[in-house]
Write the structure tokens for this entry.
Amino acid sequence: MAILEFDHLTVAGEREEILSGLTFSLPEGETAVMIGQSGSGKSMTARAALGMLPDGLRASGAVRFRGESVFHMPDKRRRTYLGRGAGIVFQDSSGTFDPIRSIGQHFRELFSVHFGLTGKDADMRALQWISRAGIPDPARAAAAYPHELSGGMRQRIQIALAASLEPELLIADEPTTALDLNIQTAVLELLKDWKKETGGTLLLITHDLGVAREMADRVLVMDSGKLAEERAAHELFAAPRSRAARQLAEDWRTVGEIPTAGKTDTSLPLLNVSGLSRSYRTGRLFKKKEVRALDEASLSIGSGEIVGLIGESGGGKSTLARLLAGIEPAQTGTITWKGNGNWPEAVQWVHQDPASSFNPDWTAGRLVTEGLEYRGVKRTEREQVARSLLAEVGLSPETVLQYPVELSGGMNQRLALARALAVSAELVILDEPFASLDMSAQARMIRLIRSLRDREGVAFLFITHDIRTAFALCDNIYVIRQGRIIDGGTPDELASSAHPYSRSLLAHVPGRGDSPIQL
Amino acid sequence: MALFLVKRAAESAFVLILGSLLVFTFIRLIPGDPAAAMYGDQLQKLTEADRLRISENLGLDEPLPVQYVHWASQVLQGNWGASYLTGEPADEVIVRTLLPTAVLLIVSQVLMIGLALLFGLTSALRRDSLYDRTVLAVSVLLMAIPPFWLALMMMLFFSIRLGVLPSSGMGAGPFSIRHLILPALVIALSHAGYYIRLFRNHFAASSSGGHLLALRARGVPYRRIVLSHILPNAAAPLIVYTGASLAVSLAGSVVVETIFSWPGLGRLALKSALAHDYPVLLAIVLLSMAFVILVNLLAGLLAAWIDPRLREADTEGGARW
């Protein structure tokens, strides 16, 4: 018997359909994974399942939970359906908590609303659920405010919040996307445990084929608001049929494969870093604490080489990037550029969230050639340069007249790359460039970076927590932890590294199999 | 928290000293002579020598810095000097006006915040509706009307045309509601426009947060979302602004109290300024500054109590795990 049923659901905005004729059903006790590129209608499906479509959209067709139309539930029935019938876990873990309420208060509120449970009983139950989420000190977490927890902890708590209402169906919308890989694994484990213990139904939404492979009984492939393919997981991974599924599989391979060719001559050292250290002071007036963000780091980057720097959040990756870009001085150690001490503007930095590094009132054309403006290059000439640079990073030359808000995350990322190339960068520092991109956009960026290296001989320092993309892209990878570079080598060398930390990073790649998907 | 308090107290003391210095200096720039205020029409009969003697008696012939140190040391001992007008101790003159002003300020603030809460919240919840736009238009109108004109119009209408409310004084005491209505309403209305808009925007911002969608998706009833999430989230910044609004209202009370002959601090301030009654004026200004600083300090503490993130802003970073 199907627990959730979509029956020709069409959701339309002013101009276009967001979902068209979506029809599928979830059998009880199954784990279904919905995959697709961003904008393919995955999140709208989740909202529709809850009967919470945004205002101003028209819907036709039906969504039924155990045969009951979700859109036509009376208010009171809907409030029990939300939470107790279907629970949801959102992607953004910080925006889904009330910032002025403690974690414990979040649980207490739900227990009082749904079970009429208050006082000590509610507190006890909250602590139980927090500890079931694998959080070491539940009492402390219950007293903490959302901003005091790490993203991974918040995400686990979010799952515990949803699970604590004992829903029959759990919908998880990109629950792992913004997290470090090892934390992703923990979150996926938590979802699996929930499934095993309760026998509930799980609808997991993701753009990551690895996650799908790891979790799915059945896969639903979305493409522009339509269901492109729906099949048992092992069948789909063995032979995807639809265009969308094949594209996703290919993108996943690009992101997941280790390049064999393209190894360039790295005899020409571009940048040499030795013994670089940097500490920060934090804390209150009377309790100063020194945090060593970077501890005797040494590495070298050859010209035209793509070098990866991987490690967990807070490991010192961004500090190293700031020092290399010359934004902050090092306290000890030396940075040598082409054999001498001063390194020039040929090192460019592409910010993690490129849109926030742009002046929103400037057109793409002006943004890209800002560096040339300072060099006194004439306007007409700049415009020409902008057009050719945009073409080079795979954007249409007409983009020069558009503003950053009109562009997608991937396009802004390309714009930032073009801006670095405009001043003839020889080394581009990419700081978590893929954090906000879906797998298909990631694959396109990887192809672009490789081709820029091949055509222009630009070297890249690729900073990431995602070991998979680092393997796909880099000639050489350094592993950084707690400010120290603890391991390094080519992807092949690293794959067989004996270092326990490198091994644990590798072990956390979701859906890691010998050959991901046959085409 | 203790460190926070010490820091704020030190800041406050610094502001008070700086403020008293400025006021002490600028008061002397008001054209005119205290002797004129003390002797009124008799002034013409005084000789130049008499005037100098009066100045000397008041200590006004000494250099300004010396006068300041003298005055400040007296104040620190609790002696605010005697009023030039009546010869009474300045603090006694002021204390008499405190109760009327306090009643007027409290009533007008309660009215104003009540209006801002009511219309701010209701229009934020119905964003861009006809109701929202009407409230917005009326708020702008209220912001544009000068308080003195509003006072005169209300007086004209309620006291003269309808004859239902008294136009001046405070009757038997500060608690005569009939006398209180007009001045309190004028102060409240003349600031309400700004605060309705402010409250509306804060409520609107706090009611579009992603966590509200999450709460709804977890089955929390709408009423509860408004009362225990939207309101408290907007409260912290609004309390801070309300603290600041008390200063504005206090300043506004000078005009309103004068028009309605309300025997409060504001009217006394104007009277002493016109009469060059330096001790009283200085005491009023200093007292008002201390009051405003205290209220803002309390508002800051209250806001930090509501919003945990504000507690950390003052201690750089704080604990994270």
Remarks:
- DSSP finds 13 helices and no strands in chain B.
